[in-house]
Specification:
- The chain has 198 residues and is an alpha/beta fold.
- It has a single domain, classed as TIM Barrel (Alpha-Beta Barrel), CATH 3.20.20.70.
- Helix content is 35%, strand content 23%.
- It contains 8 helices and 9 strands.
- An 8-stranded parallel β-barrel has the order 1-2-4-5-6-7-8-9, surrounded by 5 helices.
- Strand 7, helix 5 and strand 8 form a beta-alpha-beta unit.
- The two termini are 15 Å apart.
Length: 198
C-alpha cells in the first residue's frame, strides 16, 4: 500500500509560535503544508493570507496546498497558484466549478472539499476530494465517525480522497482503511509529528 500524503495545518498555532512550529515540523520530516483561508462565510474567519503562507513555505522549503473556505475563491486564486501544488475549494461555493477549472488549467491539482452537510453527489469537477470530518474552521474539534462512510463513498470516484478535521493517529488509520490517501492534521500532528511522519 502506498503511504498517504500527510499535510499539516497550522490553523490553531498562535502567531508568535508559527515560525518555530513550522521549523520543528519540517525537521521532524513534514513535506507538505495545508494552508487554511476563511472569509467567515463557510467557517469562522481566519487562517492565512497567501502572502503569510508563502513566507512560511519559503522559510521551510516545503510544498504547499491551499484550502480556500471562501464564498468566492476566484479573486484570490492567482496569489495561491504562484506556490501551491494543490488548491481546495468548497462544494458549497457558488463559483466552485469555475475555480476548479482555473486551478487545473494553471497546472495545479484541483480538489473539492465536502463539509459534513454537503451532498456527495454534487456534479463538481476536480480530481481530488477532501472530506471534512469536522465543521470547517473548527480545528481541534472531535472527528465525526460518519466521515469514514463518506470517504468510502468517494474513494472509487476520485483520484485522491482526503480527510481533514480532528484527525488523530487512530483516525488516520481508520481513514486510510476506508480509502483515504491524503491526511490533513493540525492539533494531533503538532502533538506527535513522529507518529504521523514515520
Amino acid at each position: 500500500m502506498i503511504a498517504p500524503r500527510v499535510s499539516a495545518s497550522l490553523w490553531s498555532v498562535p502567531a508568535d509560535r508559527l515560525e518555530a512550529e513550522a521549523l520543528r515540523l519540517r525537521d521532524a520530516g513534514l513535506r507538505t503544508w495545508h494552508w487554511d483561508r476563511s472569509d467567515g462565510s463557510m467557517a469562522p474567519a481566519g487562517g492565512f493570507t497567501a502572502a503569510q503562507a508563502r513566507s512560511l513555505a519559503d522559510l521551510t522549503g516545503l510544498a504547499s496546498e491551499a484550502h480556500l473556505m471562501l464564498a468566492d475563491p476566484l479573486p484570490e486564486l492567482d496569489d495561491w497558484l504562484t506556490f501551491c501544488e494543490v488548491i481546495v475549494v468548497h462544494a458549497g461555493a457558488p463559483t466552485a466549478a469555475i475555480a476548479l477549472e482555473r486551478i487545473a488549467a494553471a497546472g495545479a491539482r484541483a480538489a473539492v472539499a465536502f463539509a459534513p452537510g454537503d451532498p456527495l453527489d454534487a456534479e463538481i469537477g476536480g480530481l481530488d476530494a477532501l472530506v471534512m470530518s469536522v465543521e470547517p474552521g473548527h480545528g481541534g474539534s472531535a472527528f465525526r465517525p460518519d466521515a469514514l462512510d463518506r470517504i468510502t463513498a468517494l474513494a472509487g470516484h476520485r483520484e485522491r480522497v482526503g480527510v481533514d478535521g480532528g484527525v488523530t493517529l487512530d483516525h488516520a488509520r481508520s481513514a486510510t482503511a476506508a480509502g483515504a490517501s491524503w491526511l490533513v492534521s493540525g492539533t494531533a500532528l503538532l502533538a506527535d509529528p513522529a507518529g504521523f511522519l514515520r
